[in-house]
Design brief:
- By secondary structure, this protein is mainly β.
- The protein has one domain.
- Helix content is 10%, strand content 37%.
- The protein has 2 helices and 12 strands.
- The chain is globular, with a radius of gyration of 19 Å.
Length: 296
């Protein structure tokens, strides 16, 4: 995001995965019988699961709700960008975004940039695949308890920043039984020109007892620009109503979202816009991390 007046045709696209490089370090206490005994094996197995998740998520429809507020004194709202879309398939099996709610944006302190779009699509939902392992350095931190899950924690950073590419830098948590990523915390990099990017947390939930898909992203950060005053923002992204698509489809790389029929969305009945708040809504609690069958 950069300083300036809001000026953009905003297109949300689906998450394009990025991933991690292998490390070799022993895990002192395996979580269960048959658990991996070294970190290289943990990384190999969760990256393989992430590759499967990538293909599987392309076979699901879901609702995507993006909400960004800029905040002033006493957390009063100074601007807002709100967009709700259904990610579905058309009759030909093409994945499309159908906008269901998109009131006029009121942001004046920030300008949404192409880098922001790519981060919303790939870095913030942050998936991991075997194919992208060489891009990242992973350092094992240790075992950590998150809600009802026991996890392996890793610090992650890109090995090299290539021009035009977006990367993640921060920490991930991997469930020690399913060996899948369940939480991500960090920031998109690199920062270019007079742009700043918020620190965020991304949570996943178990879908259909097999996959861990992103369901909630949250950021509450102050962006300190080199030119101009700082800007306080609060952002939430929710992915809900995951449903497996049963028709014949063409598997696409995540990020290939067409906007076909978006112009038709205006013919649909839209929900009434929410009242303009004088203060931002209270922070919604993140999803509780648990496996299917665990007690609530």
């Amino acid at each position: 995001m950069k300083k300036g007046w809001f000026s953009l045709i905003f297109i949300l696209v689906l998450a394009g995965p990025v991933a991690f490089a292998q490390q070799t370090k022993s895990v002192a206490t395996p979580a269960r019988t048959g658990a991996p005994t070294d970190i290289a094996d943990v990384i190999r197995r969760f990256a393989a699961a992430e590759s499967e998740n990538k293909v599987a998520r392309n076979n699901y429809t879901f609702t995507q709700d993006f909400d960004l507020l800029t905040l002033g004194a006493a957390d009063s709202v100074t601007g807002r960008f709100k967009r709700v879309s259904d990610i579905v398939y058309d009759d030909l099996g093409n994945r499309i975004e159908k906008i269901t709610f998109f009131p006029q944006p009121t942001l004046v302190e920030l300008q949404i940039t192409p880098e922001d779009m790519r981060d919303l699509a790939g870095v913030q939902p942050f998936a991991l695949t075997t194919e992208d392992l060489p891009k990242y350095q992973i350092d094992y931190v240790g075992k950590e308890k998150l809600d009802e899950l026991s996890t392996y924690a890793f610090n992650v950073k890109p090995k090299e920043l290539r021009k035009g590419e977006r990367y993640f830098e921060g920490r991930i948590w991997v469930d020690d039984q399913d060996l899948q990523v369940v939480k991500v915390q960090g920031q998109a990099v690199p920062e270019v020109n007079n742009q700043k990017f918020p620190h965020f947390e991304s949570y996943r939930e178990n879908i259909d007892g097999r996959y861990w898909f992103p369901t909630y992203i949250y950021a509450d950060d102050v962006l300190d620009f080199k030119k101009g005053p700082s800007v306080h923002l609060r952002m939430t992204v929710r992915f809900t109503n995951y449903k497996r698509f049963g028709g014949r489809i063409r598997v696409l790389d995540e990020g290939e979202v067409s906007n076909e029929d978006n112009t038709k969305s205006s013919d649909k009945t839209k929900p009434a816009p929410p009242p303009s708040p004088t203060k931002p809504p209270a922070q919604n609690p993140e999803p509780k991390l648990k496996r299917p069958g665990d007690r609530p």
